[in-house]
Amino acid sequence: MYQPVIDLAGEVCFRPNFWQTKTRINYLIDEYLSTYELCDRLEDLPRQFQDPQPRKWSTINWQDINPEQVIGIELDIFLSIIRGALDIEAHIRGYTQTSRQYLEPIHPNMAKFVGGKVLENGNIIELGLYASQKEDHQHTPALIKIYQQLSQQKILPQKREVQIYQAQKNPYQDLYQHGLQRVATEYSAVCLYLWLMSHTTGTIQQVLSELLQDEVNHLTKFWGMGMWLYPDGAEQLIKYLLSQINTILPVSYESDLQTKSNLKSTFQRMMSVLNWQSGSILSRGELIYTFVWTLKKIWHWSSQLTPEYLQSCCATPEFFENNNLESYQPETILF
Ligand SMILES: [Fe+2]
Ligand SMILES: [Fe+2]
């Protein structure tokens, strides 16, 4: 009798068509982005303000990684995607201190959680979640191990320039602009790892599931904090993310939003780094599907978050010492 093989994304199909991969993507979205999971990650914030602790990973048997665990994508294309993801992760690591600087004048506890405590001379005296050699710091070595195990070749991430902190208008407005990009970056990472999980099984999929859970953790915290600090910005955030998805569609039109873009979109960067030209139309369709359905799920969750609930997750006494939430209305957004 036929016994289906089940993994973290549901039933395994070794030569999947679009509909079978779509079923796996839906399964992963339901599992890893459930309302329970998203709320749990956001409700973790007050604990993290007290004592930042990275999320613990399960034990991974790195030696078990083998090419047969990649399904429905050519191995060399999969490797080029891992190489691209590696460069993005290495870049996000450098981005951490920029986020800390934008957060510091507004929410010192969130700044510390993200980037630790830094002296005037730039020395880090206390490590934050991101700077703790764990979470995002764990991502680059994990991807290197997958790559090396599959290709039997050494690899190093490419050095890339990181957007630096630039105070421009007022700290609230500056953080708003930065926050949009930060949320878009975490959201792209979530979508990428989720899609890669639909095309893998076994140990590779297990590693990707740890990466995915870390990115979901980051996304919910940045997203929830953004919703609390800028309650009128929710619609603009969705428009921003949709405009970013639009930039990776096969026929991309120049919208007003894009021409105003003051940054090379996170998504475009991701697609070029991922060596997208070598990806098939099918993979592109699957990834766009992942972006849209993930956004739908998060938007549904986000629309249920009440101001009181957000306050219970995001507020700290230090925040109220310097800020008055009522006094701020986001200005016209400049993306
Ligand atoms: Fe990461
Ligand atoms: Fe992240």
Structural class by sheet pairing and helices: mainly alpha
Q: How would you describe the shape?
A: globular
Helix share, percent: 55-70%
Question: Mean pLDDT across all residues, rounded?
Answer: 84
Beta content: under 5%
First CA to last CA: what distance? Answer: 56 Å
List the secondary-structure elements in sequence, H or E: EEHHHHHEEHHHHHHHHH
- Helices, by number, come to 14
Q: Unreliable runs, pLDDT <50, ≥5 residues?
A: 251-263
Strand tally is 4
Ligand inventory:
fe (ii) ion
> What is Rg?
20 Å
**Main sheet specs:** 2 strands, antiparallel
Q: Output the strand order for the largest sheet.
A: 1-2
What brief labels describe this structure?
335 residues, mainly alpha, two-stranded antiparallel ribbon, 4 strands, 60% helix, globular, binds fe (ii) ion
Model description:
By secondary structure, the chain is mostly helical. It has one domain (about 5-325). About 60% of the residues lie in helices and about 5% in strands. The chain has 14 helices and 4 strands. It has helices spanning about 20-30, 35-45, 45-50, 75-105, 110-115, 135-150, 170-200, 200-230, 235-245, 255-260, 265-275, 280-300, 305-315, 315-320, and strands at about 5, 10, 115-120, 125. It has a two-stranded antiparallel ribbon. A two-stranded antiparallel ribbon has the order 3-4. Strand 3 (about 115-120) and strand 4 form a beta hairpin. The longest helix has 29 residues, at about 75-105. It is globular and about 65 Å long. The termini are far apart. The relative contact order is 0.16. Mean pLDDT is about 85; it is low at about 250-265. The protein binds fe (ii) ion (2 copies). One fe (ii) ion binds near residues 186 and 189.
